[in-house]
Design goal:
Elements (H helix, E strand, L loop, with lengths): L5 E2 H10 L21 H4 L1 H17 L6 E6 L5 H9 L2 H6 E6 L13 E3 L8 E8 L8 E5 L5 E6 L5 E6 L2 H10 L22 E4 L1 H12 L1 E10 L14 E4 L2 E3 L8 E3 L4 H4 L5 E4 H7 L10 H5 L1 H18 L8 E7 L13
Helix pairs in contact: 3-4
Length: about 350
């Protein structure tokens, strides 16, 4: 890693995805599961829910001869492995599972899974594209208001030292004006007058994520694209941004030297296309049959082992749907073609 000054987007790209020493691409590394728990790692209920959604997509598309499941930001292939384990044989026989991940293919992965470093070609996929905690690792630049209230790009070195660079301009300034709520967007409707912004306000410029998501959606010929991630909405953006790091299961300061994950919450409303639907993970998983209600106590008397299993499942479901935790994640659903619209609404369920 160099220790030159650069924007957070460039620094994060090197820190996470450098070919030899990137946090995610370092040979022999443990992958995301070695440092934090995503919904995929909490319980196989999550893979079961994705399998249920995949079957709804399959039905909506008329059971095509070839059905794709593209897992973007696949980690070590845990989600695809879990889905394959619970799919009926007839669906699994038509499935073309594809992992998109910049790390090398893990040893021992199911040979049915195609492993690639880039998204499939535009219009080449029919089925479900699922991106679990991918967009939060698409690198973005950070801005901060200076002593005069002017938003400036934050520069950083590999040791985490920061300083302010030049004022934000061009497409990035336009993105801030459109998507980041006042007071950081002073000329937005209802915003603070120019020059009156307090110093120290921060924001992440989500434009690269909008572009990454649009590219992912374009891979579909027909089907559904889903992003599940930490999210915030315009009007409730964090005033000091959300850039942070994770290492060994703990939140740490974001230092772009390859030693930790670097992540920031996603402006999913900015990513959304005109036909998109947005739900919380709690709403989405409930619609897919994941329910955290405890089993009836009477079951303990008639089937003690079954009660213990049901209780464990209910605990995992509760964690996945907790509105103060994973259940508060945002789900962005983008149908391509009319057949897969509304698959998680009452009518689509």
């Amino acid at each position: 890693m160099t220790n030159e000054w650069c924007g957070w987007r460039e620094a994060t790209e090197r820190a996470l995805y450098g070919p030899d020493d990137g946090f995610y691409t370092r040979p022999g590394g443990p992958g995301p599961a070695g440092h934090f728990r995503t919904s995929v790692h909490v319980s196989d209920l999550y893979a079961g829910a994705v399998a249920t959604l995949l079957r709804r997509v399959d039905t909506a598309l008329g059971h095509p001869d070839e059905l794709a499941l593209v897992d973007v930001g696949a980690g070590r292939g845990e989600l695809l492995t879990g889905v394959l384990a619970v799919l009926p044989g007839e669906v699994a026989a038509r499935l073309r599972p594809c992992a998109v991940e910049r790390a090398a293919r893990p040893r021992g992965l199911d040979p049915r899974i195609d492993w690639r470093g880039e998204l499939p070609a535009p219009g080449s996929v029919t089925g479900l594209l699922f991106a679990n905690e991918w967009l939060d690792n698409v690198p973005v630049d950070v801005v901060e208001t200076d002593a005069d209230g002017v938003p400036r790009r934050v520069l950083v070195r590999a040791d985490g030292t920061e300083r302010l660079g030049g004022p934000v301009d061009g497409a990035d300034a336009e993105w801030l004006r459109r998507w980041w709520a006042p007071p950081l967007a002073p000329d937005a409707p209802g915003g603070t007058a120019p020059g009156a912004l307090p110093p120290g306000l921060r924001a992440e410029i989500g434009r690269p994520r909008d572009e990454a998501w649009a590219q992912a959606v374009r891979t579909l010929r027909a089907g559904l694209a889903v992003a599940a991630d930490y999210a915030h909405e315009r009007g409730a953006r964090p005033p000091f941004g959300s850039l942070t790091g994770f290492r060994d299961g703990r939140e740490v300061s974001p230092v772009p030297d390859g030693s930790c994950d670097i992540t920031a919450h996603v402006a999913l409303d900015a990513c959304a296309g005109p036909s998109a639907e947005r739900l919380t993970q709690r709403e989405a998983l409930h619609a897919l049959g994941v329910d955290g209600r405890r089993p009836p106590l009477a079951l303990a008397a008639t089937d003690p082992s079954g009660y213990v299993r049901a209780l464990s499942s209910a605990g995992a479901a509760a964690e996945l749907t907790d509105p103060a935790g994973l259940g508060g994640f945002g789900w962005l659903l983008e149908p391509v073609g009319g057949a897969c619209a509304g698959l998680l609404t009452a009518g689509g369920a």
